[in-house]
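Example for reference:
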Amino acid sequence: MYPRDIRGRLSAMLVNNGDFAAIMGGAGLALAIRVLASALGYAVMIVLARWMGASEFGRYSFAVAWITLLAYVATLGLPGAAVRFVAQYSAAADWPNVIGLIRASSLIATGCGIAVALLGIPGVIWLGPYVDAGYVGPIIVALVGLPVLVLGAVSSEVIRGFGWVGLAWAPLVGQPALLLLTATAVVFTTHGLTSTMAVGAAILAHAAMLIFQRGVLRARLAARIPSRVEPSINIRLWVGTALSFLWIFVANIVLTQAGTLIVGILLTPADVAIYSAAAATSLLVTFILQAVSALSTPKFAALYAHGRELELQKLYTNVVRWTFWPSLAVASAVIAFGAPILHLFGSDFTKGHSVLAILVLAQLVNTVAGPVTNLLLMTGYQVAAARAVGFAATSYILAGLVATSIFGTVGAAVALFGALLIANVWPAILAMRKLGIYPFVVGHLQRSFP
């Protein structure tokens, strides 16, 4: 196909599909943020690994993996409910429910974060004698900052529900930048950086970005919503829906973080460092899909709510087709240059090249069917999606424990590949059966499905 033909097809697609055109127009900003955030976050990981060394960096990564998992548990699934209901309420100018949802979700999430932290700190102290002593300090510091992470997760998804992706994703850029500045100050002051110090710096960076984010959100809402609006509270609906999202969020975070946790439990902190570096590198494959998905996910909810099924199919097909092929190109480049990329972390990290190749292929699986789980979440099929993703996460834990104990970090990577295959194929089948949406990137696969 000639470049002129490609340009013609793209132009026709944008003209004939207004929703996709709007998303692709906004995706420029989202993609720029994602690229900048990925590059900055990756650079910060490299710097921290070099300053701390493999073992301390492994302990830092282990603590971050644990706190990320616990933070999503503590949200009760409210981020997913927030982006769905805010998109629906704001489209209908239902401001009482918008204000009520924001206030209620923030208070509930913060309270749950505090409760988990209060329970977790004594638990870590009690388990201290049975684990690597270097894990205790950073995990306790991370638990102290848990409420900040929980409120930040809810706030970002509330903002994304309005379609303000720039503000919603601001912490993706600001947090690693502030972390790097804080860590640099610590290194020059103390001439060293431990995993506990690094986790503390990360929490402070999250807190600073949360204050900024909430301040801008408050200002935007004041300009958009009448000042005398009385909030409407529907806790039963919001929390009930959120709990369906919770299992999916926990399952997804298990698919993202369980490898690091399993390696940390069964192997050494140095192995954790190598696996974490490979896992972070593999995520570069998905940033294009994440950028477009951030804008398209609220649109899924709006189109479905208004019964515009044909437009929903067109939108989803375009999202998948125009995100898979660039992701494939990125995956090929990462695999080809994996060894020199990992060498940036230190000479010991090149041992993870084979792990990186497997993890890249695993992440590429995520792009074949697009954001199909998000599609189910935004259209009321969160329970069915939860079963599929939950089964994949459970399988990953069981297979990961066995495979890692036998084959080391390679086994953990292979287990993730299998789990992500389940986590994408099963929801894709659900989308075809329940919504009539055909999610695959290859057009000729679109046929009737019972």
Notes: The chain has one domain: 3-445. The radius of gyration is 22 Å. Residues 1-16, 443-450 have pLDDT under 50 and may be disordered. The longest helix spans residues 18-74.
